[in-house]
Amino acid sequence: MVSSHNDIVRFGDFVFDPVRLALYYRDDFLKVEKKSLEVLAVLVRNPGELVSTSEIIDEVWRDNLAGIGPVHLAQSISKLRKGFAAHDAAKDYIKNVKGLGYIFDRDVVHQAAYVVPAAVTIPADPEPVNTPAKDERPSGTERSSTEILEDRSAKARPTSRSYMLTGLAIGSLVFISLLAWYQFRQPNEEAEIGRIVQESQLYESLVLYRDPKIFKEEHLDKYWTPEADINSNFDRKRIRTAVRSLLEKGLYYGSETKCEQFELQSVEVDVKGEIALVRTLEKWFIAVYRENGGLDRNKYVGPYFVSYVLRKSDGSWLIEKSTTARANLPVPQVANLEVVTEPKAGQQFFVKLTGQDFIPQSAYVRVVGEGCPEQHPCIVSNGDLLKHGLLTEHSLDNVPLTLGRGEFLLYVHNSENHQSNAVRLVVP
Description:
Nuclear Transport Factor 2, Chain: A; 7 helices; 21 strands
């Protein structure tokens, strides 16, 4: 079933709003990163059908395709799977067709708009069925005008029960309306805050630092709060100092500079809706050039966590300050080694390693055994792994090996100090 881009999508106990990028499980809002939800929005349009890797990447990363590849998509898919598995571990919602793309493997139901549950209808008091008392008046005697007025007044007077029922009905409608407003407001607010943070960092590194000569203080008004004192310790001071340093040294950021990784870890807004705390995981590649066009240096920065404080001013969210902390890389765990092609001494063959907590951007394989001593082990670099297969948090596909005969131990590393357990491999 092909859906409209604006349809609300239901599958099992999940509800997904592709416009607001909001995912719910049994009415509970789930925190899932924006890119993963954008991927989900593409997949659920044609459930049960293969969507190619290139098609998903072209749509989800259309505003910044530089350096984006299947690995980035696999990371977003992995986060979606974790979100689904946390609530429904028995089902696999997304199938991977190796080398081709992905299939959303669940039946879905579409509806044009989110339907707020109707208020409970409280039936009105039934009209009392009164058996008129027999008129004891002598025949032909008319009721006085006073009696008639008193009777009409009694019929028109509302009872305390009708007041109570009316109040309950109005209260129910107000409560449900507020609940629906809050559910839709929250993901919208969080998405807007996340957008501001990500755009500000891209603007800082990919605009201001690429041409520091054009920098003006008012350029910062778009994303950062104003300073009561120009020397106060806000992000503006940090940016100002960085621009000054580049100008003094005759340096600028080159066009290769890019954001390798940007993940929203959490967004928290205070009850008044005035202050937000944001935590991200970021990694950057930075190329610095001299004024004569020569390369000064390039480097990877991160991955690291950044905590942002944002304040709402005149209806817009602005960044007040941020702090950076080095990310603690997880220790990978290898659960299984699978031989993909037959191992032959002196010839290249491939194996697959599965487990958990692999970091696709930095993972590499270390081999110890005959010809690969502990002091000088054989290394399969991250670049070589990427050339031959897909890297995800749970698997390293097609690890290329060329070894002699003997017994070997294989380790996965996220960094030099983050080494997995060993798995045994025998080359006959």
